[in-house]
Design a protein that fits this description.
Number of helices: 13
Helix content: 25-40%
CATH class: Alpha Beta
CATH architecture: Alpha-Beta Complex
Number of domains: 1
Strand order of the largest sheet: 3-2-1-4-5-6-12-9
CATH topology: Inosine-uridine Nucleoside N-ribohydrolase, Chain A
Bound molecules: beta-D-ribofuranose, calcium ion
Order of helices and strands: EHEHEHHEHHEHHEHEHHEHEEEEH
Structural class: alpha/beta
Strand content: 15-25%
Radius of gyration: 17 Å
Length: about 300
């Protein structure tokens, strides 16, 4: 059965890979895309999300613009150093043809979930602001969403934006706390697993050599992202596979190994954004998150490459 997803995103180079991967996957039906600040400013990621649905003839999918900043925190530094000022590797892409939906992302999520009870999987791969705002608008969605599969967090490994925090969570830790503590099924595809799923040069180059609109776009926007990885991690052109791994989980959870614990957020100070796995339920008694801690990395990568090269 096809899984209906709402893809919440801050495109973003790896968001671009992830969304095109999702749109090319018959197991998933993308019923809407919601945009959020993060890798670039809110107005920029919204236009990018629109460009991405139009890229391969999916302009009928609604794109709703969401939050431009975190719920509580003042605006923090965006991810433009990694993804470019335009979120597209500083390639100054042409404007999209269509228009954004006339509704805020959070309201779009609420309306879509209420109209499809039990059928929607939320796949957020940016800061969790829109998801938290949707929960605040209509708490009932917690019981009506099938699952939340999010890219973010670092439970048992170091962070990437600070020694402890992963970027998506760091950008809005209060939103993350709301999402992790709500009574719904949450799966966290965080650095614990995405740093094990390394897109090596051979696979990456295979994607970039393909002749289709997704690959043609990636060829342009990827150099900036790849350079960043090279400078920071020195992994010679390879990249950690963040957002596409959340899509891979949505397609085939059997490729991943999970551990369960409630996730507690540190929301201030130098540990802000740390996702703490409270394995023994000492601090909280709310529902456990499925924390991805391992994967059949080769199979995940082959799935991504297969879809993006066809
Ligand atoms: C996450 O942060 C963003 O830079 C990426 O798009 C990904 O969602 C990885 O920490
Ligand atoms: Ca992202």
């Amino acid at each position: 059965m096809t899984k209906k997803i709402i893809f919440d995103t801050d495109p973003g180079v790896d968001d671009t890979m992830a969304l095109t991967f999702a749109l090319r996957s018959p197991e998933l039906e993308v019923v809407g895309v919601t945009s959020v600040f993060g890798n670039a400013a809110g107005p920029v990621t919204a236009q990018n999300a629109l460009r991405l649905v139009e890229l391969e003839g999916n302009g009928h999918i609604p794109v709703a613009r969401g939050a431009d900043q975190a719920i509580v925190l003042p605006a923090l530094e965006l991810g433009t150093e990694v993804h470019g000022e335009d979120g597209m590797g500083n390639t100054d892409p042409a404007p999209p043809k269509g228009k954004l939906a006339d509704v805020h992302a959070a309201q779009f999520i609420v309306d879509t979930v209420l109209a499809n009870p039990g059928e929607i999987t939320l796949v957020p791969v940016g800061p969790l602001t829109n998801i938290a705002l949707a929960l605040r608008l209509e708490p009932k969605i917690a019981e009506l969403v099938d699952e939340v599969i999010l890219m973010g967090g670092a439970a048992y490994v170091p962070g990437n934006i600070t020694p402890l925090a992963e970027a998506n969570i760091y950008h809005d830790p209060h939103a993350a706390q709301m999402v992790f503590s709500a009574d719904w099924k949450v799966t966290m595809v965080g650095l614990d697993v995405t740093h094990q799923i390394v897109m090596d040069n051979a696979r990456f180059d295979k994607i970039l050599a393909a002749d289709n609109p997704a690959a043609n776009l990636l060829r342009k926007i990827v150099p900036c992202y790849r350079n960043f990885f090279d400078q920071v991690y020195g992994i010679g052109g390879a990249v950690y596979t963040h957002d596409p791994s959340a899509v891979a989980y949505a397609i085939d959870p059997g490729l991943f190994e999970v551990r369960q614990a409630p996730i507690v957020l540190e929301t201030e100070g130098r540990c802000m954004g740390k996702t703490i796995a409270d394995e023994e339920h000492r601090w909280v008694d709310y529902r456990s998150t499925n924390i991805c801690v391992g994967a059949q990395a080769e199979a995940v990568l082959d799935l991504i490459v297969g879809r993006l090269t066809k």
